[in-house]
Amino acid sequence: MASFGHIAVGLAAGRAFRPERPWWCMVGFSALSLLPDADVIAFVFRVPYEAPLGHRGATHSLVFAALCGLTALLARRDRRLALFTGLVVLSHPLLDMSTDGGLGCALFWPLSNERLFWPVRPLPVAPIGAGMLSTRGLSVVLTELLFFLPLVVAALWPPRRAAPP
Predict the structure, then answer these.
(1) Which among 32, 9, 4, 23 has a CA at the least distance from the CA of 123?
(2) 54: in domain
(3) Which residues are CB-contacts of 18 (< 8 A; sequence separation ≥ 6)?
(4) Model confidence over 27-68: pLDDT tens digits?
(5) How many domains would you assign to the chain?
(6) How far, CA to CA in Å, does 48 sit from each of 39, 52, 54, 149?
C-alpha cells in the first residue's frame, strides 16, 4: 500500500479514541498505523525482503502488534489505549495482505515465516522508494484515495455540538 490507507485508519482510530479532541490522537494513531513499515530500514542493511526481519516480516505480525499494545499498557496503564494501539498496528499487515503484489505478510511470525495474503486482494501494491514518483505510484495513491475516502471523511467530519438547553 502507498500509506494513505494506513493513515486513514489512524485518523479514524484517533477520532474514535477521543472524539472531543481528536487531533493529537489522530496524528499519534496515524504514526502507529505506519510503524510496521519501519522494517524498510532492513534494505539499508541488505536484509533480503523475504527474510524474517525483511520487509513485511516480523513487524507485520500479530506478535509485533501485541508487543506494541503491551508497551502502551506499561507506559500509560490505560487498557483502552493499549487495545487501540495493538489494533491500529495490526491493521497495517491486515491491509497489506489485501494488496496484489509483494510477498505477503508474516502474520504468524515467529511461529511461521510463511507470507500470507487474503483470498481477495483489491488494492494495488505500491512501488518501493522512488518508484512512487511514477505513473504507477500515482495510480496506487488515487486508488487508495477512492477506497479509503469514506473513512477519512468520517474521521475529519466536524464533531456534533450539543444543542443548547
Answers:
(1) 4
(2) yes
(3) 25
(4) 999 999 999 999 999 999 999 999 999 999 999 999 999 999
(5) 1
(6) 11, 9, 6, 34
Q: Evaluate whether residue 43 is within a structural domain.
A: yes
Q: How confident is the model at residue 161 (pLDDT cuts 50, 70, 90)?
A: confident
Neighbour count for residue 165 (Cβ, 10 Å) = 3
Domain that holds residue 28: 4-156
Asked, for residue 78, whether it belongs to a domain, the answer is yes
Q: Residue 26 corresponds to which amino acid?
A: M
Question: In the beta sheet, which residues pair with residue 123?
Answer: 99
Say if CB 84 and CB 17 are below 8 A apart. yes
| 161: in domain | no
Instruction: Name the residue with cell 502488534.
Output: 65
3-state class percentages of the chain: helix first, strand second, coil last, to nearest 5: 60, 0, 40
User: How far, in whole angstroms, is CA 141 from its chain's centroid?
Assistant: 15
* pTM for this predicted structure: 0.92
Q: What would you measure as the largest C-alpha separation in the chain, in angstroms? A: 64
